[in-house]
Amino acid sequence: MSELIIDQVVAAYGQSTILWGVNMTLQPARVTTVMGRNGVGKTTLLKTIMGLLPVKDGHIHFHGQDVSKLPPFKKAKAGIAYVPQGREIIPKLTVYENLQLGLEASAHRKAGLPEDEIYSLFPILKDFRKRLGGNLSGGQQQQLAIARALVSRPSLLLLDEPTEGIQPSIAQEIAQILRQLVKDKGLSILLVEQKIDFAQQVSDHYYFMDRGQMIANGNAGDFTAATLQQYIAM
Ligand SMILES: Nc1ncnc2c1ncn2[C@@H]1O[C@H](COP(=O)(O)OP(=O)(O)OP(=O)(O)O)[C@@H](O)[C@H]1O
C-alpha cells in the first residue's frame, strides 16, 4: 500500500490559491524529494499535508485512509510528523524539554521519550540535554528538530529544507541518519530540498513542482546534478 496519496489537492491562503491540483504518490520506506524554484508552493504543500492549511479541494490518503479534513494533532496521532523550515526550537526550553514537546500530540505519549533511540541517533543531544535550545548551533537545532519529530514514532516524516544555514559536515551527518531511519525503521520521508548534493545523497524519488503543480517525477537514478539544477532554476 502507498504511504501517502495526494489527489488533485487545492490549497489557498485566503483568496490566494497556491496549490492548483497537486498529485503525488509516496511509497513506504523511501525518501521522496520535492524540488522547484522559490515560491512555487513546496512549503505550502507540507503545511497542507500536516493539516496546518485546509484542503480546499481534492483528497489526501494516508495508509489508505482519507485524512484530508483531519486537524494537525490528529495527523500527528495517525503517524505524520513535521519539521518546519526554520526548525521552531523553543529557545528558552532545554533540549530535553524540547524533546518532550514531541510527545504532546503523540499516540505513544504514555510510553515516554524513546531516549536511548534518540541519543544513539544524535549523541550530541545527550551531552547537551540540559542546555537551552536557543544556545545550540543551527546544525544542532536541526538535529533537535528532527529528534523531536521522531519522538512521536511517526511512519511519515515531512522535512522542510533541513540543510538551510547549517555546516556541510552536519548536513552530511543528517543525510546518513535519514538513510539509516529509512533502512532500519522503514520510515517514509517527504523532503523539500534545494541543495542538490544533499538531495542526491538521500533521495529515492523526485517530484518537481512549478506554480502549484507537479510537472514531472522519477526515480533518483534517472536524474543528474545538471538536470536537477534545471528544475530548480526554471
Ligand atoms: N502565510 C501566507 N499568506 C499568504 N501567502 C503566502 C503565505 N505563505 C506563503 N505564501 C505565498 O505562497 C507562495 C508559495 O510559498 P511557499 O513558501 O509554499 O513556496 P516554496 O516553494 O516553499 O518557496 P521557498 O523555497 O521560498 O520556501 C508564495 O507566493 C508565498 O508568497
TrEMBL record:
<dbReference type="GO" id="GO:0005524">
    <property type="term" value="F:ATP binding"/>
</dbReference>
<dbReference type="InterPro" id="IPR017780">
    <property type="entry name" value="ABC_transptr_urea_ATP-bd_UrtE"/>
</dbReference>
<dbReference type="InterPro" id="IPR003439">
    <property type="entry name" value="ABC_transporter-like_ATP-bd"/>
</dbReference>
<dbReference type="GO" id="GO:0015658">
    <property type="term" value="F:branched-chain amino acid transmembrane transporter activity"/>
</dbReference>
<feature type="domain" description="ABC transporter">
    <location>
        <begin position="4"/>
        <end position="234"/>
    </location>
</feature>
<dbReference type="InterPro" id="IPR027417">
    <property type="entry name" value="P-loop_NTPase"/>
</dbReference>
<dbReference type="InterPro" id="IPR003593">
    <property type="entry name" value="AAA+_ATPase"/>
</dbReference>
<comment type="similarity">
    <text>Belongs to the ABC transporter superfamily.</text>
</comment>
<keyword id="KW-0067">ATP-binding</keyword>
<protein>
    <submittedName>
        <fullName>Urea transport system ATP-binding protein</fullName>
    </submittedName>
</protein>
<keyword id="KW-0813">Transport</keyword>
<dbReference type="Pfam" id="PF00005">
    <property type="entry name" value="ABC_tran"/>
</dbReference>
<dbReference type="GO" id="GO:0015807">
    <property type="term" value="P:L-amino acid transport"/>
</dbReference>
<keyword id="KW-0547">Nucleotide-binding</keyword>
<keyword id="KW-0029">Amino-acid transport</keyword>
<dbReference type="InterPro" id="IPR052156">
    <property type="entry name" value="BCAA_Transport_ATP-bd_LivF"/>
</dbReference>
<dbReference type="GO" id="GO:0016887">
    <property type="term" value="F:ATP hydrolysis activity"/>
</dbReference>
